[in-house]
C-alpha cells in the first residue's frame, strides 16, 4: 500500500512540475508570471 501511495505522490509532484515549467516556458520569462 505504501508503494502505491509513493507512486501517487511521485506522479502528482511530477505532473505539478511539468505544469509549472510548462507555464514558465510558455510565458517566456518568469518575471511575467504575475
Automatic annotation (TrEMBL):
Protein name as catalogued: Uncharacterized protein
UniProt organism field: viral metagenome
